[in-house]
Amino acid sequence: MGEREELTWDAFGSAGRELAAAVTADGYQPDLIFSIARGGLFVAGALGYALDVKNLHVVNVEFYTGVDQRLDLPVMLPPVPNAVDLTGARVLIADDVADTGATLLLVRDFCADHVAEVRCAVLYEKPRSEVRCEYVWRRTDKWIDFPWSSQGPVVRP
Questions:
Q1: d(CA 90, CA 118)
Q2: For the segment 62-89, what is each residue's pLDDT rounded down to a tens digit?
Q3: Domain coverage including residue 64
Q4: Residues 67 and 58 sit within 8 Å (Cβ to Cβ)
Q5: What are residue 17's phi and psi, to 5 degrees?
Q6: Where is the Phosphoribosyltransferase domain (predicted)?
Q7: What digits encode the pLDDT tens for the residues 87-132?
Q8: Number of domains the chain contains
Q9: Single pTM value for the model
Q10: Is residue 148 part of a domain?
Q11: Domain for residue 153, yes or no?
């Protein structure tokens, strides 16, 4: 498989704070954080606490089905957020990685017509990403082992 980037829980704690510090240093004050589930849930939670933003929305997007296995196009799964709730808001989209960028692009484009401003924050951005995120903790071209997904499920159906 080649070299991998490993993120530990300790490093994730620092990464979340550093990402929030970058948002704050830039003067961006989001009204709400859009979390791309599942990996983005962790990032959005960390950013929500660090930026004192309590309004978090979750969007479920399916794209990856396994290591280097993905659908042709990302799909937003129900329940899809109500665009009316986003009108005039400053939105920060949070995800764990901008790999191809297709998932972020789908969510950003969904928001773009309704919100005052939308920016993206990710832990990792890969060189091939279609989206250049405003806030990136690290850039890499390696496969990333995240602490929340590096081990298999505890319970199998």
A1: 6
A2: 765 555 555 566 666 566 666 656 788 9
A3: 7-143
A4: no
A5: -65, -40
A6: 9-149
A7: 889 999 999 999 999 989 989 988 887 889 999 999 999 999 999 9
A8: 1
A9: 0.87
A10: no
A11: no
